[in-house]
Amino acid sequence: MVGAVSSLAAVTLFYSCAVNKTANLASGDAAGKVYVPPGSYDTYYAFLSGGYNGQIGVYGLPSGRLLKFVSVFSQNPETGWGYNEESKPMLQTTYGFMPWDDSHHPELSQTDGVPDGRWLFINGNNTPRVARVDLTTFETTEILQIPNSAGGHASPFTTPNTKYIVSATRFSVPIPNNDVAIESYKKNFKGTLSFITADQPGKMDIAFQILLPGFNYDLGHAGKGPSDGWFFFTSYNSEQANEKLELNASQNDKDFIAAVNYRQAEQCIAEGKARTAPADYFHNVMDEKSHQARSERKSTVKMLDPSSCPGMVYYLPTPKSPHGVDIDPSGEYIVAGGKLATVIPVHSFSKLQKAIADKQFDGEVEGIPVLKYSATIAGEVQKPGLGPLHTEFDGKGNAYTSMFISSEIVKWKLGTWEVLDRMPVYYSVGHLMIPGGDSKKPWGQYALSLNKITKDRYLPTGPELAQSAQLIDISGDKMKMLLDFPTIGEPHYAQALPAELIKDKQLKYYKLSENTNAGVVRAEREGGISRQGKRVDIKMAAIRSHFAPDNLEGVQVGDTVYFHVTNIEQDWDIVHGFAVLGAENSELIVAPGATRTLKWIPKATGVYPFYCTDFCSALHQEMQGYVRVSPAGSNTPLIANISKKAAAQIAKSEKEGHEQHAPAGGGR
Ligand code: RUQ
Ligand code: CUA
User: Fold this and answer.
1) What's the pLDDT score for residue 274?
2) pLDDT in tens, 441-492
3) Can you give 224-260 as a three-state secondary structure string?
4) Residues near 398 by Cβ (< 8 Å), separated by ≥ 6?
5) 3-state secondary structure of 463
6) Quick one: what percent of the chain has pLDDT higher than 70?
7) Pocket test for ligand 1, best of 104, 221, 428, 452 (most atoms within 8 A of CB)
8) Are strands 560-567 and 535-543 parallel, antiparallel or unpaired?
9) Which ligand is nearest to the CA of 615?
C-alpha cells in the first residue's frame, strides 16, 4: 500500500483549495449573534496560544476582540517581560537564557473534570517547558523545564483535578542525551512521558517520568469518569525512522495510542520500583510579594521503566499516524485523529479494560503489551472527510472533528458514529475549540475553528497574513458560521470559559504595603541614588505625573545602573512606563503597586532624558527627568533631587528623630 500512502501524503502537501474564493457563509442573523455593544462584555474568555510567538492571546467571544496578550515564553518589549531584571529568571533554562519559544496548547486547570478558572497552563515546545498563568492577574507565575525531553508537544493536558499536567517528548532522543550516531536511532533513542505536579502554585515539579520506545509522541488527554486514573497519548513513527519521516514514518497501517494507568505508576513508585535518573532542569517562580523571579536548578527525576511496572502502559493500535486523542465527556470514548486515516477510530474504555483482563494481546513492543484493535474499538466514523486532527464535544452526545485536508469541521454522533453535519472552514483547520469541549461538562454553544492558512479572508498584508479564527454557532442541529477574526501568532489550540467564572476575581492593583522588592519605595521620599563600586542603584517612585527623584547626577561612564521604578499608585489600571535614552533592552511597564528594574549601561558622557511611556494623565508628557553621566573617575557627587513636598516630609521626620532613608547624596 506504499503507493496509496505516498499519494495521500502528497495530498497533505497541498492544503485544500477546493473552495478558493472568499465565501460568505454567515447566515442572516449572524451579525446580531456576535455583536457586543460598546460598554458590554463578551460572555466567554478565550485563550489562544500564540504558536511561534510563544505567548497567549486573550480574546472575548463571541466578538473576537483581543483583550490581552500574556507574555509567557518570549521576551516582550511591550511589557518588558524577559527584559526587566525581575522577570529575566523566568526564561532561564539549562540551555541558557531563552528569549523565545513556540507555545501550542493552553489548558485550563480543572476541578472534578471541569475548568475552574484558577490557572491556565501552556507548553513550550522547542525547549520543553510548561508555564502557569494566574487568572487573577493574567501573569505568568511559574515555568518548569522538562528534562530528558525534546519537543514538549503533548503538553500540558491536565488530569481532572489538576493533580498532574503532562508533557511527552515529540522527538525521541538518547536519554540521557549524548553523542551517538543518528543511525543508531532504533538502539539508542527513547521517548519519555512526564507527569508534573500542578495543583500547588509555585511548586510544580516532575512527579515521575516513564521511559518509552523511540516513537514520536504527539498529543494526550486524561481519562475522566470511569477512565479517571488513565492518560492517553498518541504516537506516530512506530517505524522508528530517523530520516525522511514524511515517507518513512507513514509505512505502518497503524501506530499507537499509549494508554497509561498513572495510578499504577504511583503504586510502583510507592513500592520503590522507580529508579533515580539523572536530569537537568530549571524551575522558575515569580514571587508574589517581591515580584522578583527566582530560579532553581534540579538534577534528578524518578524514572519508571514499563518492564518494572507491569500494568502501567498498553498500546492501542490506531490508524494512521494519529495526532489528536480526545476523551468524550462521559469518559468512555477515546477518539483518535489519524492524520492519514480514512476513518475516525473510536476506542472504548470499558472494552479496553475487558481486553486487558482477557489478555487480548497482539504481541508487544519493547515489553509493552499491544492490545488487539478489534478488542478495543467501539466504532469508526466512516467517510468523515480528509485529514482528521482534533475532536471536541458539545456535551449533548455530539463530537466535532477538524479536517485539515478537506478544510471542514464535521459533526458526528457518539455511539452511532454517523456524520450529522459539515461546515467548510477557511483554510486548513488545525485545532478546533469548544468552550469546555475537552472537559466533563462542555458549555457548548460555540466552536472556534483555528485555521492554518488565511489566503483571501482579510485585506491582504503582503506575503504573510495573520491566522484566521472562525466562530461557529453549534447550539442548533446545523452549524452556523458567525464570524471571522484574525489572531496574533499561530494559535494551535485554545481554551475558553464563561466570563463570570473569573471576571470578578481580577486583581485591580498590587498592594504597595506588601511589596517586598529589594528596590521598592513606598513613598516619594524613599527615592534616591547609591553607589557600590561600579554599580549604581536608583530607586524611584512613579505617580501621576512625575518621577521622584527626577534629576540624577553622579553616574559615570563604565557604571552599571539599575533603575528600580515603583508605581506607587493604588488605583486600577493606572500604569506607568519608564524609558531612558540609549537603553538597549526595552522600556519598563509597571503595574500599580509593583516594582520593575531596568539595567542600563551608559556608554558616553552627557545628559540622558527619561520619561513615562504609558499615557497616564493629562500631564503625562510632563512625566520625565534627566540623568547626568560624567566621565569615569569624575567627582560629580551623587545627587537625586526630590520634590519640595517630599523634602519637607524628610525634614519633618528627621526633626522627630525617626530613622530615615534620605536620598543618597543628601538631595538638595
Ligand atoms: S497541534 S494543530 Cu500542537 Cu494539532 Cu497544532
Ligand atoms: Cu506615567 Cu505617563
Assistant:
1) 98
2) 999 999 999 999 999 999 999 999 999 999 999 999 999 999 999 998 999 9
3) CHHHCCEEEEEEECCCCCCCCHHHHCCCCCCEEEEEE
4) 411, 412, 413, 414, 420
5) coil
6) 93
7) 104
8) parallel
9) 2
**What is the structure's pLDDT at 23?**
56
* Sequence-ordered list of residues with C-beta below 8 angstroms from that of 613, at least 6 positions apart, any chain: 577, 578, 579, 587, 589
For 79-132, what is the HEC assignment? CCECCCCCCHHHHEECCEECCCCCECCCEEEEECCEEEEEEEEEEECCCCEEEE
Residues lining ligand 2, Cβ inside 6 A = 542, 545, 576, 612, 614-616, 620, 623
Cis preceding linkage at 176, omega within 30: yes
- Mean residue pLDDT of the chain comes to 93
Amino acid found at 393 = F
Residue 651's pLDDT is: 74
Q: Is 339 in the pocket of ligand 1 (CB under 6 A)?
A: no
The list of the chain residues with pLDDT below 50 reads 1-22, 658-668
DSSP-based three-state secondary structure for 368: strand
Burial pattern 140-156, b for ≥16 Cβ within 10 A else e, equals: bbbbbbbbbbbbbbbbb
The predicted structure's pLDDT at residue 646: 67
Q: How far is CA 361 from CA 320, 321, 430, 577, in A?
A: 19, 21, 33, 64
All three cell numbers of 235: 504516537
Task: Provide the pLDDT for residue 24.
Answer: 64
What pLDDT, on a 0 to 100 scale, did the predictor assign at position 401? Answer: 98
Q: Are strands 624-630 and 152-154 parallel, antiparallel or unpaired?
A: unpaired
What count of Cα atoms within 13 Å lies in the side-chain half-sphere of residue 586? 18
Cα gap 380→336, rounded to integer Å: 10
Cell 476541578, located at residue = 111
Cβ–ligand 1 contact at 431 (below 6 Å): yes
Nearest CA to ligand 2 atom 1: 576
